[in-house]
């Protein structure tokens, strides 16, 4: 008969310690990843003006059964204004939208070669705060959108920017705050989403805290 020393079998506490030591690097990496994700979500929340641009054959806005704006070929641009937006965001969106090469050059046949100004097409701007809607459960929340009393003059200044940069006759808009029916024929379809840069806002926020 053989007698085995008790040291041949580690105790339950020793086994637990050994297992914990083996797993600790994995647990550390997992916790670090979770912390990084939380920091990433906290530091990089969207703080930008947002535009959804659709290339259209035609588009119009109807309010109370009456067409208030319409264009033929061109761009329908839905604009979401964040509560922290400034003139710099408006400048960026205006410049980028007007210079996006979403149209074919009919002379050369080259696609994605010309912008809306080069083609002499129309631009229809529509304010849409729901672009900053977030679901809380099943209900949308719009608290990060700029409040209406502040957003109305800001949006009006954005429309003026587009008109000055391009052509007042070619740039149309809807009715701020109204219940609008937006009709469009998407050409392609082509739809782009554009957010203004957030780096300057993050730097401003950091300098304020320091």
UniProtKB/TrEMBL annotation:
Major localization class: cytoplasm
EC number(s) recorded for this UniProt protein: 3.1.1.96
Swiss-Prot/TrEMBL catalytic activity: glycyl-tRNA(Ala) + H2O = tRNA(Ala) + glycine + H(+); a D-aminoacyl-tRNA + H2O = a tRNA + a D-alpha-amino acid + H(+)
InterPro entries documented for this protein: Daa-tRNA_deacyls_DTD (IPR003732), DTD-like_sf (IPR023509)
Localization terms from the record: Cytoplasm
Span list, region Disordered: 190-210
Gene Ontology cellular-component terms listed: cytoplasm
Domain of life: Eukaryota
Coiled coil: none
Keywords: Cytoplasm, Hydrolase, RNA-binding, tRNA-binding
Gene Ontology MF term list: D-aminoacyl-tRNA deacylase activity; tRNA binding
Broad EC category: hydrolase
Pfam families: Tyr_Deacylase (PF02580)
Family matches, as NCBIfam families: D-aminoacyl-tRNA deacylase
UniProt similarity note: Belongs to the DTD family.
PANTHER family: D-AMINOACYL-TRNA DEACYLASE 1, D-TYROSYL-TRNA TYR DEACYLASE
Protein name per UniProt: D-aminoacyl-tRNA deacylase
Organism: Eruca vesicaria subsp. sativa
């Amino acid at each position: 008969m053989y007698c085995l020393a008790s040291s041949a079998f580690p105790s339950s506490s020793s086994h637990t310690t050994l297992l914990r030591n083996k797993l600790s690097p994995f647990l550390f990496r997992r916790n670090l990843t979770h912390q990084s994700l939380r920091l990433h979500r906290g530091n990089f929340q969207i703080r930008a003006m947002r535009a959804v641009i659709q290339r259209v054959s035609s588009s119009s806005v109807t309010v109370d059964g009456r067409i208030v704006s319409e264009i033929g070929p061109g761009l329908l641009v839905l604009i979401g204004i964040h509560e922290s937006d400034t003139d710099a965001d408006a400048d960026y969106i205006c410049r980028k939208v007007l210079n996006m090469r979403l149209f074919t050059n009919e002379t050369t046949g080259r696609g994605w070669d010309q912008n809306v100004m080069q083609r002499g097409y129309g631009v229809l701007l529509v304010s849409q705060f729901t672009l900053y809607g977030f679901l809380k459960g099943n209900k949308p929340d719009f608290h990060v959108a700029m409040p209406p009393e502040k957003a109305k003059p800001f949006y009006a200044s954005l429309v003026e920017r587009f008109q000055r940069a391009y052509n007042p006759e070619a740039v149309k808009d809807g009715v701020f705050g109204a219940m609008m029916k937006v009709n469009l024929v998407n050409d392609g379809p082509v739809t782009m989403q554009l957010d203004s840069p957030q780096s300057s806002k993050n730097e401003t926020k950091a300098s304020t805290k320091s």
